[in-house]
């Protein structure tokens, strides 16, 4: 073990002692931490933008839109709703339990671990921290070492603004993460890929620690026969190109009817010209691929179909032009793995029913999208497609609603957070019943008689 990992047991001991003495319980403390987080983001917006530009070449507008604005919205929502979320939640007590009152009492879990991802290295660390602090927990944060500049900045800023007796930042790579996962936490939230997700689950099982996994997957976008193609192309193009496609809920592939395929491709080309110009690799509004390993992986997908738009790339800057592929087979690697980049396969189908069948034959995605004008198509899609999150006539925008739970299903993850769902995820919802001492109803006590049994059946 390194000097860094040697300190983990003492760090955990101190956090647990601080939690046990009630440091994080007062609502005033929780509100103060949320306010301090908002202040940290406001006062260091330029530093954050520089770090994200170093790691991902994110344009300033994408920094605000994809990272900061979502956090500000979630913080405001949590501050406004905190008293309501923490109140006892009254439930009905049946006649057999009377006279009594019953309620659910939210209480903090203890010390939680939040493991962030490199593609949104600010938002995916702090977004789970918001409900964790709102629920009254201590937290250990592990930023992704792949986004090194942002991870270093988070490690510097968080102790300056948040209570270091309750929130700790751990840096490092595989060795540090492995040792960290040997510690006993009360909940672990991990965002990333399925391979590491399995490692997290195995480690958590040693302590019977509950986990929330946000794992991504292949999020389909279905273009119905009557869809507004201009609107669909604009929104689809934006969602696919945001952060150079390195978004876990980005449209991964498109299903469109044969007679509308070429029209859709033409509309996407027009939108790319409008957004990024003719020389898209040099656009200041377009991010880069995080590193050479992911760049090489993505370049390998270009042979899995015919390039209809784009296909150019620059090794020096790790940029890949937004690319549309046709002629992609379901057996190709690009259709078996999450793309996580600016390459968009377009697959032809005969009908909405065939598109839905195509989606249902695969692992359940983290997100699914439908563009349509038809209420019937909308209803059929919502009822037929199992997905973590679903959006009709747009992409990604459900993330702007803080009260909508966010999370996967099946292979795309387990557990949800954001808003009240996040507060509940980081809370134990304790069942409480308080009974009156009088009057004493004796029918439940021995000796048992037929008379008592008849009344128990009536009351039950």
Provide a descriptive summary of the structure in words.
Helix 3 (27-43) runs antiparallel to helix 5 (60-86), helix 3 (27-43) packs antiparallel against helix 6 and helix 10 (229-241) crosses helix 11. This protein has helices at residues 3-6, 8-20, 27-43, 45-56, 60-86, 123-134, 148-161, 174-180, 194-206, 229-241, 258-276, 292-301, 352-360, 375-384, 419-425, 450-459, and strands at residues 89-91, 100-108, 111-115, 138-142, 167-169, 187-191, 211-214, 220-223, 253-257, 306-309, 313-314, 319-320, 323-326, 343-349, 367-371, 389-392, 406-407, 413-414, 416-417, 427-435. The chain is of the alpha/beta class and 460 residues long. The protein contains 16 helices and 20 strands. The mean pLDDT is 96. The longest helix has 27 residues, at 60-86. It has two domains: 3-215 and 410-432, 3-Layer(aba) Sandwich (Aldehyde Dehydrogenase, Chain A, domain 1), CATH 3.40.605.10; 220-405, 3-Layer(aba) Sandwich (Aldehyde Dehydrogenase, Chain A, domain 2), CATH 3.40.309. The strands form five sheets. It has a seven-stranded mixed β-sheet with strand order 10-13-14-9-8-15-16, with helices on both faces. It has a six-stranded mixed β-sheet with strand order 5-4-3-6-7-18, sandwiched between helices.
């Amino acid at each position: 073990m390194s000097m860094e990992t040697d300190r983990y047991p003492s760090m955990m001991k101190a956090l647990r002692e601080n939690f046990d003495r009630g440091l994080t319980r007062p609502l005033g403390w929780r509100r103060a931490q949320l306010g301090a987080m908002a202040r940290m983001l406001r006062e260091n917006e330029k530093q954050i933008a520089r770090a994200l530009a170093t790691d991902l070449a994110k344009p300033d507008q994408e920094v605000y839109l994809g990272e900061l604005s979502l956090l500000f919205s979630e913080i405001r929502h949590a501050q406004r709703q905190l008293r309501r979320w923490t109140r006892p939640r009254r439930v009905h007590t049946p006649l057999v339990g009377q006279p009594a009152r019953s309620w659910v009492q939210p209480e903090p879990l203890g010390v939680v671990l939040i493991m962030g991802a490199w593609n949104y290295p600010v938002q995916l660390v702090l977004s789970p921290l918001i409900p964790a602090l709102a629920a009254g927990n201590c937290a250990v944060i592990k930023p992704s070492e792949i986004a090194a500049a942002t991870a270093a900045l988070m490690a510097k800023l968080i102790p300056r603004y948040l209570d270091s007796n309750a929130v700790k930042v751990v840096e490092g790579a595989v060795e540090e993460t492995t040792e960290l996962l040997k510690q006993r936490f009360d909940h672990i939230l991990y965002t990333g890929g399925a391979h590491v997700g399995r490692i997290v689950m195995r480690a958590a099982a040693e302590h019977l620690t509950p986990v929330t996994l946000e794992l991504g997957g292949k999020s389909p976008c279905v273009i119905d026969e009557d869809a507004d193609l201009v609107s669909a192309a604009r929104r689809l193009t934006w969602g696919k190109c945001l952060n150079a496609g390195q978004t876990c809920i980005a449209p991964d592939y498109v299903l469109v009817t044969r007679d509308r395929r070429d029209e859709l491709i033409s509309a996407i080309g027009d939108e790319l010209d409008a957004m990024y110009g003719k020389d898209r690799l040099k656009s200041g509004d377009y991010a880069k691929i995080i590193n050479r390993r992911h760049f090489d992986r993505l370049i390998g997908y270009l042979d899995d179909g015919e390039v209809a738009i784009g296909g150019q790339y620059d090794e020096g800057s790790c940029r890949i032009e937004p690319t549309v592929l046709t002629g992609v087979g379901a057996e190709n690697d690009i259709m078996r793995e999450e793309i996580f980049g600016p390459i968009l396969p377009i697959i032809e189908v005969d009908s909405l029913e065939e598109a839905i069948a195509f989606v249902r034959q695969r692992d359940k995605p983290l997100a699914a999208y439908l563009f349509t004008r038809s209420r019937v198509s909308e209803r059929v899609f919502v009822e037929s497609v199992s997905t973590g999150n679903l959006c009709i006539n747009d992409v990604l925008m459900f993330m702007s609603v803080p009260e909508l739970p966010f999370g996967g299903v099946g292979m795309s993850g387990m557990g949800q957070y954001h808003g009240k769902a996040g507060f509940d995820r980081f809370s134990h919802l304790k069942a409480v019943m308080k009974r009156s001492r009088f009057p004493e109803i004796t029918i439940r006590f021995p000796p048992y008689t037929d008379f008592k049994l008849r009344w128990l059946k009536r009351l039950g």
